[in-house]
Design a protein that fits this description.
Elements lengths: L9 H5 L11 E4 L1 H4 L22 H11 L27 E7 L7 H10 L5 E4 L1 H6 L1 H9 L3 E4 L12 H19 L5 E2 L8 H9 L3 E2 L4 E2 L8 H11 L5 E5 L6 H16 L3 E2 L1 E4 L1
Parallel strand pairs: 2-3, 2-8, 2-9, 3-4, 5-6, 7-8
Antiparallel strand pairs: 1-10
Helix pairs in contact: 4-10, 7-8, 9-10
Length: about 280
């Protein structure tokens, strides 16, 4: 994936995202009260002695869906077509959302996941399809550790400059690869550069996704320094806030270092770091 950290028109484009007044289609669930801890017990050891032979070949593959008792993956009703993205999620108590864009990146994403795991916190990761395709094990790890995966397009283009077919391809391919890797499609998407238009709202909804923007932009893509990133998060902290950071698209070592500082500080201040769940 190319380096997308160049400033060019990003400051102008950020103004295109505005607050969505009614958030009736979502609710925030504290991750620490709805999901199992990240540290899982070891799997049971197989009993000694001869084991039944495993079925093999095409027949076994065809029989698996027939013999499985698990219900199909939960998919909420298709969302309405929005005219503005969610920027914040009010009325959730003293909770916030951390989100990371442009990954997964094999250098920086593992460090971010390690920090989140240390504090037993879940976050949102808006993945670029080409990065997900090339880093499938990282996508699985993100999902396995209870984080929410979102769609951030395939190549991080300026969506407002694409045809309707182009938007469909960018969002559709990304949803497909995430579902292929994790078994579930993303339920959220974020327009690159925060540039939304009617096509992206309509096509996103048709793919079952709600649009998510942000409240606090760390501007970590400008590489402003770790202290500055930490200060921006701490100054912007408030109930319902969605924080935007990046785990790819350039040198994100400052983003990694900043998370190690502001995450425990937010927890000490009494904030719960949550992920949104669709009704």
């Amino acid at each position: 994936m190319r380096d997308i950290s160049t400033p060019r028109s990003r400051r102008t484009l950020l103004g295109l995202a505005a607050v969505l007044g009614a958030a009736t289609a979502v609710r925030l669930v504290p991750a620490d009260s709805t999901r199992a801890p990240l540290h899982r017990p070891a799997p049971p050891v197989a009993a000694a002695g001869p084991q039944p032979a495993a079925a093999a070949g095409p027949l076994a593959y065809r029989l698996r869906p027939m013999t499985a008792d698990n219900p199909p993956p939960y998919r909420p009703a298709a969302p309405p077509v929005r005219t503005r993205p969610f920027e914040e999620l009010p009325d959730i108590g003293r909770s916030m959302v951390l989100s990371f864009d442009d990954g997964p990146d094999p250098i920086y994403t593992p460090h971010i996941l390690d920090t989140l795991r240390t504090h037993d916190v879940r976050a949102m990761f808006f993945l670029c399809g080409e990065m997900a395709h090339d880093n499938r094990d990282l996508v699985r790890r993100i999902a396995d550790e209870g984080h929410t995966l979102g769609n951030h397009s395939w190549t991080h283009p300026l969506v407002t400059g694409l045809s309707r077919a182009g938007v469909t391809d960018e969002l559709g391919r990304t949803s497909d690869v995430i579902e292929e890797i994790t078994g579930a499609p993303p339920l959220w998407y974020r327009a690159p550069y925060g540039a939304w238009n009617r096509n992206s709202f309509e096509i996103g909804a048709s793919l079952g996704m709600e649009p998510m923007a942000w409240t606090v932009d760390t501007l970590d893509w400008t590489v402003p320094g770790t202290d500055t990133i930490v200060r921006r998060v701490r100054d912007g902290a408030a109930p319902g806030v969605v924080v935007l950071s990046h785990d790819a698209g350039g040198n994100r070592s400052q983003s990694v270092a900043a998370l190690r500082r502001y995450l425990p500080a937010l927890l000490d201040d009494g904030y719960r770091l949550t992920v949104p769940r669709r009704r």
